Amino acid sequence: MTTKRVLLAAAALAITGFATGAQAQAITEIKIGTEGAYPPYNNLNAKKELEGFEIDYMNDLCAKMKVKCTWVVQDWDGIIPALLSKKYDVIVAGMNATPERQKRVDFTDVYTSTPIAMVGAKSITSTDISPAALKGKAIGAQGSTIHMNFLEAYYKDSTIRPYPTQEEANLDLLNGRLDYIVADLEALESFLKDKGKDCCKIVAEVKRDAAIHGPGVGMAIRKEDAALKAMLNKAIAESKTDGTLDKHAMKWLGKKAIQ
Amino acid sequence: MEKYLSLLSFGDTGWGDELLQGALVTISIALATLPFGLALGLLVALASRSQSKIISGLATLYTTVFRGVPELLTLYIIYFGGQILLQRLWSGLGFSGSLSISPFLAGMMALGLVLAAFSSEVWVGALNSISKGQREGAAALGLTRGQAFRLVVLPQLFRVALPGLGNNWMVLLKETSLVSVITLQDVMFIATRANVATKEPFLFFSAALLIYLFFSILSAWGIGRMEMRANRGFAR
Amino acid sequence: MRWCEAPGFYIGHEVLERYGCRMADGLVLTLKLVGISSTLGFVLAIGLGLLRLRGPKPVRYAIAGYTTFFRGTPLLCQLFLIYYGLGTFRVFWQDLGLWWFFREPFYCCLLAFTVNTAAYQAEIIRGSLQALPKGQVEAGRALGMRPTAIFLKIEMPQALLIGLRPLGNELITMIKVSAIASLVTLFDLMGATRLAFARSFDLSIYLWAALIYLALVEIIRRVWGLMETRLTRHIAMR
User: Fold this and answer.
1) For residue A42, which of A52, B39, B69, C129 is within the disulfide window of CB 3.0 to 4.6 Å?
2) Is A77 within a domain?
3) Residue B190 in 3-state DSSP?
4) A126 and A65 belong to one structural domain
5) Tens digit of each residue's pLDDT (9 = 90 or more) over C8-46
6) Measured at the alpha carbon of residue A70, what is the angle toward residues A67 and A71, in degrees to the nearest 5?
7) Confidence at B97, pLDDT banded by 50, 70, 90
8) Which residues of C touch A140 (CB under 8 A)?
9) Closest Cα of chain A to C88: distance in Å?
10) Which of B79-83, B177-181, C231-235 reaches the highest mean pLDDT?
C-alpha cells in the first residue's frame, strides 16, 4: 500500500514538473475577455455574434501575431476579477488604464483614447456642467467605470446612479429618471444616432483628468504575464505604423484612434 | 395588441422562444440544486445531533451563517470567491492554464448551500419525530447503523419532512431569479435583456411573473399529490 | 477620522476603512427600507387578513389571488415590474402629479417591498386568526361585546401571539431580501459593498458585509425571542 502511494506521489510530482516546464514555451493561444455590450467598441449583434472596433482590431492583431484567439464574454462588473482568476488572459473592452486599476493589473500601450461627454435632454439650455450647476440632479453612469469614479470624486452634491450596462443608463435617461449621463463620446454618439435621437443631445464635453481617467484605453493583462505584454505591445506598435489601427478606427469610430 | 403578440412570438424577432429557454434554465438550476441541497441539509442535520460538541457546533454555525446572510451576497461570494479558490487550487497542484466555474455551477453551489441550511431545520424536526424504538428494533434485527438509517429511518423521515421540504422547494424556485445577476440566462435575465432591447418592461416582466406563477402552482399541486401518497395508510 | 472609518482602521483593513462610511450609510438606508415597508405591510396585512376570512366572497377571492400571486413569484421580478414597468408611464404620472414617486428607486423599492410583505403577513395573520379556538369569540359575544371590540381586544392580541414567530421570520427575510435594492441603483448596504468591490476587487469586503447582515439578523432574532418569552409568560406550556 505504502509503495503504491509513494509511486503515485512521485508520478504527480513528475507531472507537475512537466506542467510548470511547459509554461516557459511560446504563446500560441490567447483567450480574450470582453463585455459585448458597448457599441461601437464591442457588441453582441442580433445573431449573438461579437462585432465592433475592438473585435476587428484584435482579430487582426491575432492574425499578425500568429496566435489562436478565442473571445469570452463577461459582464463588466466581473471583468477584472475574471482576468485575475485566469478565466482569460487579456481584456480588450474599451478599458481605460487608470492608476487605480494599475494597482491590480498591467496595461499595454494605449491604442485609443476617447473624449468624454455628458448627455442630457434636448431642452437643457446651459452648457455648464460644473458640480455646482448640477447640484441635486440625477446623473447616471455605468458602474465600475472611470465615469463612475469621476462622478464620485467631483459630483458629491448630485444623486449618482450606477448601472450594470451603458444601455440601461441610456434607458433611464430616456424615461426621465436621469437628468444627465456621462460616458465615452463614441458610445454616447452611437446612442444619440439610434434610440436617443429625439430626446437628447450632448450638453458638454468633460475634461479628462489623468488621475481619474488615465492616459487612454489599453489592454489589461495580469501583472505576471510579461511575455504576453511584450508581444501585445509589439503588435500594437506595428499596427500604429502600418495603419491597421486607424483603418478600423475610421470604420467603427469615424475618426482616428488616438487624437 | 398585435405588437405584443409579435414580441412574444417565436423566431428571430420574437422573444417567446428565448423566454421559454430561460424558463428551462430556471427549472433546471432549481432541479439541479435540489438533490445537492437536500443531501447536504440531511448531513448538517445529522451533524447537529452528534454527540461531539465540535461537530454540532459547526453545524449550528453553518445554519446560522447561511440562513442569516442574504442569498444575493452568498451568490456573489461564491461566484467571485469560488473562481479564485479554484484557480489557486489548480495552480497549487501545479497545472498551468485555467479552470473556470460556470455561472450555472456557481449558482447551483450558492443556492444549494442556502437550501441545505434551511432544509436541515426541517430534517432535524423530522429526525426528532422518529421514536427511539425504531432504531432499537433495527438493531435487534441485526441491521448495521448504515442499513438501519437507509432502510428504516429514511423512508419514515420523508413523510414527516415533506411539507417543510415542499416549502423549501417553493422558496428555491423563486430564489433562482437571483442567478440572473451573475449572467446566467434564466427567465429574469432574458426578460431584462428583452426590456433593454424593446423598451416593453410591462409585457416582459409580466410574462416572467406568469412563468414563475405557473411553476409555483404546478409545484404546489405536485407536492400536494406527493403528500397524499406519502400519507396513505396513515389515519388523519 | 469619522466613527465609521474607525473599525476598518483599527482592524487594519484598508478597503473597509475607505468604504466604511458608505457602508454605514447603506446600512441606514437598508434599515429605513425594511422598517417602513414592514410596518406599512403589517398595517395592510391586518386588514387583508381579516377581509380574507370574513369579507364578501368576491373580496375573499381577490385577496386570495393577490397573496398567491405575490407569494408565488420572486420579489426581484415584482420589483423590476414596478421600477421599470411603471416607470415607463412618465406622462401619466406627471399628469397625476405622482412622477416624483415613481421616478425615485427608493420609493419604487418601498412600494414593491410593502406589497410583497403585506401578502406574506396577511397569510400569517389569517392563519393565526383561524387557529384561535372558537370559544374565545363566543365568550366575547356572550359578554355582549361589539364585533369591533371582540376583534381588537380578544382576537388580535391572541392571534399576534400565535403569529409572533412567523412574523419575526418574515422580518428577517425582508432584511435579507432587501439586498436586491442594490440592483435598481440604490446604495443600500449591498449596493455600497458592490461599489467597494468594484473599486478594489478585494473579495473580503463582501465577507465584511456578510458579517454585518449576520449581526443584524442575530440581533433581531434575539430581540424577537425575548419579546416572545415575555409576552407568552402567562402561558404555562410554551
Assistant:
1) A52
2) yes
3) helix
4) no
5) 888 888 888 888 899 999 999 999 999 999 999 999 999
6) 135
7) low
8) 185
9) 6
10) B177-181
Contact by Cβ (8 Å): B162, B227: yes
- Residue C203 falls within a domain, yes or no? yes
A16 pLDDT exceeds 50?
Answer: no
Is C51 within the bounds of a domain? yes
CATH number for position A76: 3.40.190.10
Per CB-CB distance under 8 Å, the chain A contacts of B12 are 46
d(CA A92, CA B47): 48
Mean local confidence (pLDDT), A99-122:
89
In a domain, C236, yes or no: no
Helix (H) or strand (E) holding B111: helix B103-129
For chain C, what is the domain count?
Answer: 1
Taking contacts as CB-CB distances below 8 angstroms, the residues of chain B near C178 are 70
Cα separation, C137 vs C122, whole angstroms: 20
Of A26-35, A218-227, B24-33, C36-45, the poorest mean pLDDT is in A26-35
Range of the domain at A104: 28-113+215-253
Residues A62 and A134 in one domain: no
* Interchain CB distance below 8 Å, A143 and C195: yes
Query: A with B: how many residue pairs have Cβ under 8 Å apart?
Result: 50
Residue C237 falls inside a structural domain: no
Bridge partner list, A206: A116
- Give the residue-averaged pLDDT of A175-191: 90
Q: Are residues A50 and A67 in the same domain?
A: yes
Instruction: Give residue C202's domain range.
Output: 6-231
Q: What is the reported pLDDT for A7? A: 61
A77 CB neighbours in chain C (<8 A) are 194, 198
Residue A7 belongs to a domain: no
Question: Would you say residue A65 lies in a domain?
Answer: yes
Cell 459585448 appears where? A36
Closest residue in A to C196 (Cα) is A144
Query: Closest chain A residue to B15 measured between Cα atoms?
Result: A46
Nearest CB to A86; choose among B79, B98, B196: B98
Residue type, C67: T
Mean pLDDT of C125-154: 89
Q: What local confidence, expressed as pLDDT, does residue B12 receive?
A: 66
Give B206 to chain A, closest Cα distance, Å.
19
CATH assignment, B2-230: 1.10.3720.10
CATH assignment of the domain containing C110 = 1.10.3720.10
Number of Cα atoms under 13 Å in the Cβ half of residue A31: 17
Q: Is C87 on the interface with A (CB under 8 A)?
A: yes
Query: Has the ipTM of the complex gone over 0.90?
Result: no
Minimal CA separation from A47 to chain B, in Å:
9
Query: Hey, are the CB atoms on A143 and C99 less than 8 Å from each other?
Result: no
Q: Which helix (H) or strand (E) holds A141?
A: strand A138-142
